[in-house]
Specification:
The chain is an alpha/beta fold. The chain has helices spanning 9-12, 46-50, 53-63, 72-79, 85-92, 94-105, 140-143, 148-151, 189-200, 217-228, 247-257, 274-279, 285-299, 321-331, 353-367, 374-392, 399-417, 421-424, and strands at 13-16, 22-23, 33-34, 37-38, 118-122, 205-209, 236-239, 262-265, 305-307, 309-313, 335-339.
């Protein structure tokens, strides 16, 4: 391997997105494809995707040390001096990474996949929330909202970013013979009782997102199937949920999760109090706070259950993140922030430099407070990491247009939801003030004396 580009995921992992297409990982910039056409579980099995020419070329490129565009998220992280997702996954799957590296060093074929160990499933877009940074691919509520869906339609996964070799002409493969028309992929027996059950024999880590997984009966049935076939003792379960549920539903889910080797619950909590409610509409902080405390209390009773808050650093919550970190400190849990990748008009880059630096100061002030546990120490390090990111942002040439789009989007959603950015995040109120119109030029017709 000529360079440091190796990532274990293309050898052992697959992500299935809500529409049934697949990606090499959750931060990859495009779907796995055949020529120009994304491969879908409606047309290809998981094994066919994993053995596709596309994934073979990805594995060969990374093994050769080539930093391909589809992996730009990690290359950008590393360019900023951050620990990338690639580096994290290589550490989390260290035995597999070591095995593959040794195989390649001995002259093994880089194109060949290993048995699937890590599977990520986004079980449709059915969701009870319409979060401001989300889109219709991951939220049915956004898809049904005429205002929000105009700004955030389903993701276009047809856009080609990188293809190496092979047929470059678009074509649509016929559906699989067992495919039942009119049903989503996660209600298809050929996928749920076929592909996913076969994969369960080797999967060590199952990561489930949505939509909102706790609203999807297919998710419950899949877990029951893995338990009945004896896969649960060797399978860890990770779950991304919004935790905006009644107590009975949460209790039933937690009982199910404890049947697995371990369960890691990582709710998406993109703010504290009013800022949370502003971003993750129409959730109520009191209900989510109650459920967070329920899961944390149960995790203290069961070693196999772990918990961590996850958040996406974005324009709306940068000034509120210190409050969220302090909330995590109160619970003695880690809060792990990631920087929003899209939409562009909600990324931290949309803010003027003065506001970015002011938000960084707030994060640094929190980061300097004393910490007495491992989780609280991590929270301070995470706050400092986001502060350094904000300081390192360079103004993009199109920031003015991004800021206008931010303002237009915010005004429209505020009006349709009876919300107010000025009330939730007063530090950003100035971004919604339209510049005064240029004074009209006065013209006096010529008059003769």
């Amino acid at each position: 391997m000529s360079g440091d580009a190796f990532c274990i995921l293309p050898w052992i992992h697959l992500e299935v997105v809500p529409e049934g297409e697949a990606k090499i990982c959750c931060v990859a910039t495009e779907a796995i494809r055949e020529g120009r056409t994304p491969m879908n579980v409606a047309t290809h099995s998981l094994d066919q995707m994993r053995n596709s020419r596309y994934l073979e070329s990805v594995r060969k490129a990374l093994a050769d040390g080539r930093r391909i565009p589809v992996c730009n998220y990690c290359w950008d992280q590393e360019k900023r001096g951050e620990r990338s997702q690639r580096e994290l996954w290589n550490q989390l799957h260290a035995p597999s990474a070591k095995r593959v590296r040794e195989k390649l060093a001995a002259g093994g074929d880089a194109a060949e996949p290993e048995p699937i160990e890590y599977l990520q499933l986004s079980v449709g877009n059915k969701c009870n929330l319409a979060c401001r940074m989300c889109n219709a691919s991951y939220s049915s509520r956004i898809e049904e909202d005429p205002v929000h869906v105009k700004w955030a339609p389903r993701q276009d996964r047809e856009l080609e970013v990188w293809t190496e070799g092979g047929d470059r002409q678009a074509h649509q493969a016929p559906p699989r013979a067992e495919w039942l028309p009119g049903r989503p992929w996660f209600e298809q027996p050929v996928v749920m009782d076929g592909d996913l059950i076969r994969a369960g024999a080797t999967v060590q880590s199952l990561y489930v997102t949505g939509g909102e997984p706790l609203m999807n009966p297919s998710f419950d049935r899949l877990l029951d199937a893995y338990v009945s076939r004896g896969y649960a003792p060797h399978m860890g379960l990770s779950l991304n949920t919004n935790l905006f549920h009644n107590e009975a539903r949460l209790a039933k889910a937690l009982e199910s999760f404890l049947r697995f080797r371990f369960c890691h619950v990582a709710p998406s909590i993109d703010g504290f109090g009013p800022v949370y409610e502003y971003i993750r509409y129409p959730a109520k902080w009191a209900i989510v706070d109650r459920n967070i405390r329920t899961v944390v209390a149960l995790a203290r009773q069961h070693e196999k259950l772990t918990f961590m808050l996850t958040t996406v650093a974005q324009a709306y919550n940068l000034f509120n993140l210190p409050d969220l970190f302090r909330y995590a400190d109160e619970l003695d849990v880690e809060c792990n922030p990631h920087v929003l990748a899209g939409p562009q008009h909600l990324r931290p880059q949309v803010l003027p430099r003065a506001l970015r630096l002011e938000a960084a100061e707030g994060l640094d002030a929190y980061a300097k407070t004393p910490a007495d546990t491992e989780q609280r120490t991590s929270n301070r390090a995470n706050a400092g990491r986001i502060a350094r990111y904000l300081e390192g942002i360079e103004d993009a040439p199109d920031r003015a247009s991004m800021q206008k789009r931010f303002a237009d989007f915010t005004r429209e959603l505020d009006a349709s939801r009876n919300q107010s950015l000025a009330a939730a995040v007063p530090e950003l109120a100035e971004l919604l003030v339209e510049p005064p119109a240029a004074p009209a030029r006065r013209w006096w017709p010529f008059r003769s004396a």
